């Protein structure tokens, strides 16, 4: 739901910070595998972390569903109908076909809004701290 977006974004950034905190620990452990199988430690880091990423990506494709209608493996029809009705109510009782389309005027209004640029700068500062990618050129 759109109102749950803030919670999802907060969870994403917390997971990002935690992964940054523990990635060095994992890399330190994997680098101790220097010489195992004829590979140096840095190669083991790339191989194992890359393998984990690929496996989780493929699993996500099959396990993450878009809507309750296609989650029939673990929900029965009454639960699916309940979730669909709850989504309809939380959206304000509007059908998705009734949503207003974005116009070029809306885009222009957004580009002239100074708050967008302030929020973009704040996001840049936060991301630089989380990811350590900030470089002054």
UniProtKB/TrEMBL annotation:
Q: List locations, semicolon-separated.
A: Membrane
Membrane as UniProt keyword = yes
Q: Does the keyword Transmembrane helix apply?
A: yes
Assign the protein's first listed, main location to one coarse class: membrane
The residue ranges crossing the membrane are 43-65, 116-136
| Pfam families according to UniProt | MFS_1 (PF07690)
Stated membrane topology is:
Multi-pass membrane protein
InterPro entries per record: MFS, MFS_dom, MFS_trans_sf
Q: Which domain of life is it from?
A: Eukaryota
Q: Where is the Major facilitator superfamily (MFS) profile domain?
A: 1-137
Q: What is this protein called?
A: Unnamed protein product
């Amino acid at each position: 739901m759109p109102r749950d977006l803030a919670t999802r974004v907060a969870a994403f950034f917390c997971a990002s910070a935690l992964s940054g905190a523990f990635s060095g620990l994992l890399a330190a452990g994997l680098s101790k595998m220097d010489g195992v199988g004829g590979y140096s430690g840095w190669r083991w880091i790339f191989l194992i972390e890359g393998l984990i990423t690929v496996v989780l990506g493929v699993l996500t494709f099959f396990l993450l569903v878009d809507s309750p209608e296609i989650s029939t493996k673990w929900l029965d029809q009454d639960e699916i109908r309940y979730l669909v009705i709850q989504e309809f109510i939380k959206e304000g009782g509007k059908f998705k076909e009734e949503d207003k389309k974005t116009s070029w005027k809306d885009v222009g209004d957004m580009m002239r809004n100074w708050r967008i640029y302030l929020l973009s700068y704040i996001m840049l500062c936060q991301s630089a701290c989380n990811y350590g990618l900030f470089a002054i050129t």
